[in-house]
Amino acid sequence: MTTVPAQPDQPDPWEPEQQPPAAPSDPSPDARRGLSRRGFMGYVVAGATLVVAADLTTGAQPAAAAVPSAPQIPEVFDLGDLQTKSALPTSQLITITLDEDGVARFAIPRMEVGQGITTAAAMLIAEELDLPLDKVEVTLAPARPELVFNQLTGGSNTMESMYTPIRVAAAVAKGRLLAAAATFLGAQVSSLTAKQGIITDALGGRATYGELATLAASAETVPVKVNLKSRSSFRVVGTPQNRVDARAAVTGAKKFTLDLDVPDALPTMVCRPPTLNGSPRSVQNLAAVRAMPGVTDVVVVETGVAVRAATFGQCIDAVRALEVSWNGGTVEGESDESILRKLKAAELPMAVPKVPLLARTLDLRFEFMFRSSAALEPNCAIADVRGGRATVWAGLKSPIVAQRNIADALGLPQTSVEVNVVTGGGSFGHKLFGDAAIEAAKISKAMGKPVKLLWHRADEPRQGRVHPMATSRIRATTLGSEVLTFEQRHTSVETDFSHGLGERLTAMAAELPAGLGNLGFAQSIFTLTQELPYNFGVVTQLLNEVETGFNTGSMRNIYSPDVACANELFIDQLAKRMGKDPLAFRLAFLKNERVKACLRKVAEAGQWGRAMPAGTAQGIAIHSEYKGATAVLVEIDCRPATVDRKIRDAVTGPRVTKAVVAIDAGLVINPRGLEAQMMGGVSDGIALALTSSNHLEDGHFLEASWDNYFYTRQWNVPPTFECIVMPSDRDHPGGAGEAGVAASVAATACAYARATGTVPTRFPVNHGTVAFTPKSFVPPVPASPTDGLSHTY
Amino acid sequence: MAQHTFTVNGESVTVDVADDVRLLWVLRDVLGYTGPKYGCGINVCKACTSHINGKAFNPCAVRVGDLTESDEVTTIEGLADTVDGDLHPMQEAWLERDVAQCGYCQPGQIMAAVALVRKVRAEGREITDADLDAIRNVCRCGTYNRIREAVRDGAARM
């Protein structure tokens, strides 16, 4: 493995040529070879107004030169590194435009799904450009094939990969504005001060950025060297800021895919098969359905029978009226138990290392059921495929791959397919795939008309992407107060990574740590993400996957929630065996100071060890990923009065009554946004541990809506929530969007085990009970009720 | 087809659509009020929560034919117009606490919160934890704690 320089082809980009006066030189402690780490190369791009650019890979930090055997791979090279570095050789400019209205505009080549990246990006621009936050407008870039591997939103990598390039572009803009102001005001650059979008000189002259926007423009594209602000001079980055789209969200003005007004793109839905991935054989009543009120088109496609109508209500009626003969699906006759048997058969053997005669062995095996990754906004897309061209609007975290797949599906060149990325109503991994966009394009082509495709809610858990079922088997040997070995065999239904990360890994093969290139792709992701930060002697964590006919994907935090849940429950049992307190045990064996600091913090803030009534307990757990660390302490109430609460169409059960999270995410851009991500991580963790799963029975999933699929609801929410953002001396942001999930599910499971005295081995713990009457499979979607006026309040 | 006349956000509207089309689709697909969101279509997720004659309801579960000319529907787009000022106090509380993540459920959450506050006021009491526990609106981003804080905050401002 070789060291990758940040800017391989730039001659000496480190000497500042155009340094804003507001940014004094501040030698970084990490400065190497006498070069400033804050010096970078950017561009002024030819344009009528000021356009600046930076290479998207600017500032990617060099990877470690070699991988020592003792630390695990993610400690020195993780999934984020892979994503950040995989496109280094390509030229990938991102641009910021400063218009005459004084607004800086930036189309981020990532997708906003609620995780707050548009706010964080706007903060970086406001910071480096000395512009008020409300004068920065961040939109989502359409599919840009020239970015090759570098337009994927995932792995909590956005701010890690965008942090430096955005700042470089903004710094170039500021330098140009200062130079323009010097001309405009007849002053020396060194006498100018930029503040809140206005440049003033020592004599009281002033010019706004808007006034300077055209003067600062360049007739040709020129490279520029810039220095970035030092962390100590930040006034926006690191301060709590509200989301830039908050007002649009609370007034109903925020536009999601289904809210877009594309001419003639009428509502469209698909009548789907009763078994997973079944396909239509024939339709008995095509003519009758085509004649239904509002219906304009009915066509048979691979995934079912598509209906286009004046309203979605009329689509639902038509879907329910269709009489279709179906071919069997891809998991005919399969059930939870039959898939579990396949997983068990595929579990890799333990290595059984040589250990002393007196060593004791602890063996535990955990099972994790299928879970739906669906967001509240169901799969949806708008497509207009006519005249040899396709235009698509959808929430897409991997738009280049979607563009290619749509082109393939339609038989069009990729250049004839325009893919617009729309802000998503959540993702949780669901929008990594272009399922709805591809399907909408095929339907539009078949109908010869624009369509606005919506998956019915019932379609989501039944036909949509799921987090794969998995088992995790752990064996450890202990001798006295030492852990000699820790072996984990994670066995999972195959996770679909066909959304493009695979190409990155292939492209990166030569750069990967020793041995990694020989693994399969899923194993590589597993190896790049799983880090067990404990001194447990010989540690092996292996993944094996079983090929099945399920539609899977990387649900928020991929493998980590299941792996961490198994590990931390197991660790509580190790502690118990040694007669140690769970907190003391972890502190004794943890090797990562950042993790320990988080753990101590939640123990203190959450009053670990306080006396609690029988049937209630605390649980504590840690996780290390995304160059950061998380610790979570929860309190749970498993007493009958709580567990047996009756709420209509709901799962109540044990209640997490308090959650305390400590997160070290490296340099924090927006602590308020980070706290929001942790809050969501706790809600996810509670659902994964206690309530949310899909039940597979006779080739299909039983769940069809939120009254079947029990994601955390208000009655499951911990009344007390606290998030502590740990101070960090790191000069780069780590990942945040997924970092709260794993330790939350683990802490909840640990608390449940301590409160009930029983270690749960199947998750979620309520999976054994089907707490609802399954909705019909034929027709595949339920009728909308009509009694809404009887339930007003 | 049949004509239906009612009021949306203070304006009288007349639509020509079959009686049994649910109001959610009349609002969204026919009239262009996209604030109320689709999340389930069976009155479970509550993403479409709006007000009818000042009370919360879910238009996904109401036939347009069941509305009369005197019915006043308020969607999130019209909430601010029911009070003096730029925004409704509940929206201000929402902004102050930066509640929204993806934002998809938020119109429904806010409309439900306003109705909840009015309901407990009519009962002559303040919001309790039990009231907050009973809010059925799904938030898949899980920003539930901020919702709870904002409902109480909004109530204090109302």
From TrEMBL, chain A:
Record-linked PROSITE patterns: TAT (PS51318)
Biased composition (Pro residues): 8-27
Sequence ranges assigned to domain Aldehyde oxidase/xanthine dehydrogenase a/b hammerhead in this UniProt record: 251-330
A Pfam short name: MoCoBD_2
InterPro entries: Ald_Oxase/Xan_DH_a/b (IPR000674), Ald_Oxase/Xan_DH_a/b_sf (IPR036856), AldOxase/xan_DH_MoCoBD1 (IPR008274), AldOxase/xan_DH_MoCoBD2 (IPR046867), AldOxase/xan_DH_Mopterin-bd_sf (IPR037165), N-heterocyclic_Hydroxylase (IPR052516), OxRdtase_Mopterin-bd_su_IorB (IPR012368), TAT_signal (IPR006311)
Sequence segments annotated as region (Disordered): 1-35
Protein name, per record: Molybdopterin-dependent oxidoreductase
Provenance organism: Pedococcus aerophilus
Lineage, opening ranks: Bacteria, Bacillati, Actinomycetota, Actinomycetes, Micrococcales
Automatic annotation (TrEMBL), chain B:
Residue ranges annotated for the 2Fe-2S ferredoxin-type domain, each copy included: 6-55
Gene3D superfamilies, sorted: 3.10.20.30, [2Fe-2S]-binding domain
Ranges for domain [2Fe-2S]-binding: 75-152
Name of the protein: (2Fe-2S)-binding protein
